[in-house]
Amino acid sequence: MAHAEAADVRVFTDRHHAVEAPVGIHVVKLDAPARIEAELAVNLPADPAQAAVIVRQRLQDGGTPLQQRLADAYQGVTDAWSLGITRIPAVVVDRRYVVYGETDVSRALARIEEYRRTQP
Known about the structure:
The chain is α+β, with helices and mostly antiparallel strands and about 120 residues long. It has a single domain, classed as Glutaredoxin (3-Layer(aba) Sandwich), CATH 3.40.30. Helix content is about 55%, strand content about 15%. α2 packs antiparallel against α3. The longest helix is centred in the middle third of the chain and has 36 residues. It is elongated and about 60 Å long. The chain starts with a helix and ends with a helix. Pfam families: DUF1525.
């Protein structure tokens, strides 16, 4: 399985579909943007103008780390869309091979590696 481990491996999931991933595997939580937006929206007033001021302040207070979290979260959603991911969890190797529904990433990688060995 060394070949699959050395490849570009991404796992797409959300908080309702827990996965077991080896250290170093990139796991994308597709519900991350909504969770971050919910954090920003906590206890906002009903007045849209006041709410906008508070959200801008929260974004400013969060600084670069918050901006990076938002960028990473939306990039993960964009990546899943561009790869044509239709279900989660999805384990993707080299943007070419995908295993859907497997929560054990090591098992999914083994299935992909076996498939690669048997295909010309």
